[in-house]
Amino acid sequence: MAPTATSPPAMPSSESELLIPLISLEPLLTSSSTTVETSQALLSAFRTSGFLYLTDFSSLIPPSLVDSVFIQSAKFFARPQSQKDDLAWTTARSNRGYVCMGREKVSQGATKEEVAKDREGGGEDLKESFEIGREGEEGHENRWPDRIDKEGAEFRLTMAIFFEKCKEVHALLMRGIAIGMGLHGGFFDEFVRTGDNTLRLLHYPAVPPGGFEGGKRVRAGAHSDYGSITLLFQDDRGGLQVERPEGKGGWLDVEPRKGTIVVNAGDLLARWSNDVIRSTKHRVVEPPLKGNEQEEGYPPRYSVAYFCNPDFDGWIEALPGTWEGEKGGKKYEVVNSGEYLVQRLSATY
Fold first, then answer.
1. Burial 33-42, CB ≥16 within 10 A → b, else e
2. How far apart, in whole angstroms, are the C-alpha atoms of residue 82 and residue 21?
3. What angle do CA 42, 62, 67 make, to 5 degrees?
4. 23, 31, 204, 268: which has the fewest Cβ within 10 Å?
């Protein structure tokens, strides 16, 4: 059970708990005396595994809202394929709409030829998704299903509220990262005002027995995220794995923990920090079948990811304190956030 504000987390008892710590959002919400301690814990997690479990966020994102998001997500993916296809994703710049199974391939480092060959052999990622961006971006409107029926209107309202609540969590975590890195707390505020983020609903459909034999197929191939940080809400099925820190090798299970958000750093934040922060590869595999599943097959899995980015008009360069003097200088050129993310997305689809 995730710790509450009145019951601090126990000491780590496993490698997973040691490398992926439980960290409370409350000190950043209240600017308490433990804000600096929490900020340092955030930075420590991002420097080691690149992942953490976030707790005590219910004043911003109540459990009832998370439940509603999962319910609405499942209803959307249960729609007829023709309705989903009518809301199809179009361009990397817009990055909004429905993505059918097999269109995205996130396995990192593969060439387009290798991806095509992998798909021919049944190696596509077994998932479909729906992407939602901020409202009001001219020329890049969200592809809501509210014009289809009343359920579509309820879906739109739920996701719009959730998007804004996650945006608030993003701003708080960036404030914590700034303090942890010895910067003033408002350092990143100018980079997160607009909220050029992406809410992604994910459905990994049921698979018959034997569907994962041979290890060719996965739910989602090994990759790192593109932006600054990601907020991930999991169902109870599991399957998320994180690459262990250098020198340890292999994969570490990120078990679902009720009342937590899995938070990880992305490539752009690693670049921004001059690699002080670690953007870790991760993947989604299918846990072994249990009990009746041996005959019935693998059940569906749902998750919700909120990809946080610096606003698209922001210019990203190595942060103060990460490159001066004997620290080796700046490893990366200055990049525009929007152009960088469009480039990465274009290579994915």
1. eebeebbebb
2. 43
3. 110
4. 31
Whether the Cβ atoms of residue 144 and residue 83 lie closer than 8 Å to each other: no
Cβ count within 10 A of residue 11: 7
Instruction: Tell me the two tokens of residue 348.
Output: 């994915």
> CA dihedral defined by 177, 256, 259, 152, rounded to 10 degrees?
100
What confidence category does residue 13 fall into, taking pLDDT thresholds of 50, 70 and 90? very low
Sign of CA dihedral 214, 215, 216, 218: positive
Q: Provide the 8-state DSSP code for 79.
A: S
Beta strands in 205-281, from DSSP E residues, in sequence order: 220-223, 229-234, 240-243, 251-253, 261-265
Question: Edge to edge, what strands does the sheet with 22-24 contain?
Answer: 22-24, 51-55, 261-265, 229-234, 301-308, 198-204, 128-132, 97-99
Q: Which residue has the tokens 């934040």?
A: 269
Contacts of 54 (CB under 8 A, 6+ apart): 23, 24, 25, 169, 173, 231, 260, 261, 262, 263
Tokens of 129: 């998704």
Q: What whole-number distance in Å separates Cα of residue 169 and Cα of residue 28?
A: 10
| pLDDT tens-digit map of 264-319 | 999 999 999 999 999 999 999 888 777 777 778 888 999 999 999 999 999 999 99
Total-model pTM = 0.89
Q: What are phi and psi of 230, to 5 degrees?
A: -125, 135
With contact defined as beta carbons under 8 Å apart, do 265 and 243 qualify?
A: no
| 75, amino acid identity | K
